[in-house]
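Input record (one chain):
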Amino acid sequence: MLTIHAADLLITGDSRPSVPGGAVLVRGRELAALGPFEELAAACPTARVRRWPGLLAPGLCNPYGPELLEQAYHPDPREADELGTEPVTGGALAALAMADARWGASARRGVQRMLAHGTVAVAGTLRRTAVADAVARAGLTEEQRFAPPEGTPSLDPLAGRTLAEATLLPLPPEGVDATFAVFDVPDEAALAARGAATCVATVLAGRLVYRRR
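The corresponding structure, as predicted from the sequence alone:
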C-alpha cells in the first residue's frame, strides 16, 4: 500500500534543503520518495494521503534509555491516586515491589510516552530482559552510548538538545525503512522552544505507532 504523509514543512535532517508543503511517500515499510506534496500526489494519484499539521522530521533518539525505563516506574493509570502519573524514581521506586512482569508493563507504558515525543530509539544498554523486550516489540532501536548523558532524564529528547543532536538519522533514501515523526509547530525554532511534546505522529518502519487524538 502507498501512503503519502504530508506536512506544512519537511526537514530531512541533513544538507538537503527543507521543503515547504513537503511530504514522504511510504510503500509498505519503506520510504519510496520525498519532496513537494503536489509532485508525489501527481505521481501516485491512488495513494492514501495523511495530512499532518506542522513539521515532518526524522525520528528522535532519547539518550536516557536505562534511566527512564529501568530506573523509573511508569504508573498504570489505575495507580494514579496512589502513585500519580509521572515516573516514580529514587526512594519511592525502591519502596515498590518490582517483579519482572511489573518492569515489563512499566516499560511498555514508558515506551508509549516516548513515542508520543517522536522517539524512535533509546541510547544506553538495557539490562532487564522484560524492558529490552518491550522496547524491541514496540519497534524502537537500542543505540550504543559511551557515557551517561548530562542533565536530568526527560521524556523529551529535545530537552537541552538541538534537533540535529536529537535526530537518530536523516530521512532515509529510497528503499530504507520509513521512520519519522511529525510535530505541530511551524518551524525548527518553534520546535526548539516548545519541545517534542508537540508530536502529533510517529512512524516506525512505515507503521503509524503514535497519533495524537
